[in-house]
Amino acid sequence: MIRFIKNREIYEQVIQEMVPDAQDFIWIATADIKDLHVKSHGSFRPFLGVLADLVDQGVSIRLLHAKEPGPNFRKDYDLYPNLLTGMERIICPRVHLKTIVVDGRAVFLGSANLTGAGMGSKSSNRRNFESGIISDEREMIDGVMEQFDEIWMGAMCDSCQRREYCPDPIA
Fold first, then answer.
1. pTM (global) more than 0.90
2. Residue 100 is inside which H or E element, if any?
3. Is 157 helix (H, G, I), strand (E, B) or coil?
4. DSSP one-letter string for 110-148
5. Which of 2, 101, 104, 105 has its CA 20 to 30 A from that of 23?
6. What is the DSSP track for 46-87?
């Protein structure tokens, strides 16, 4: 099954449904990351809190992003000390893909960065126009995971030609 989703559907189907259902692992790749907030028990809290809860449940998390997030993200990150050891992060200035893989059984692939405006958590007149697909098709999941893993393992580092901009070279 492949489903097209857009705007607010990204938030509802990926951030509120797909991610919290993770049992084993989540791989997230995004060019830009900000202090995304999500609805939780009648109010809002940082998305990092959702990830921290998943870490407490034994879910491993990998986050691949292009640059250091801003101070608001950092402040939120510091609220969840278990993310320091429970979430692996790699910064690669060449990352521009936007994907989320959950347990190797579902994938989101789209245009949205991991931000409130990108993922559709902001009000309808403050969010970006984004689109993507959700799939449980093996070939698509395997392709996304292969690309993510190649970047994660540094397979392109030697030929990247951006090493001078890389804050923490993988290889």
1. yes
2. strand 99-102
3. helix
4. ES--BSHHHHT-S-TTTS---EEEEE--HHHHHHHHHHH
5. 2
6. EHHHHHHHHHHTT-EEEEEESS---HHHHHHHHT-THHHHHE
Ordered structural domains, the chain, with CATH: 2-165 (3.30.870.10)
Residue 123's pLDDT band, with cuts at 50, 70 and 90, is low
Structure tokens at 129: 């126009």
pLDDT tens digit sequence for 34-90? 888 888 778 889 999 999 999 999 999 999 999 889 888 999 999 999 999 999 999
Task: Enumerate the β-bridge partners of residue 108.
Answer: 100, 134
- Which pair of tokens denotes residue 88? 């692996």
Q: What residues contact residue 95 under an 8 Å CB cut-off, 6+ apart?
A: 29, 30, 31, 64, 65, 66, 151
The confidence score (pLDDT) of residue 39 equals 84
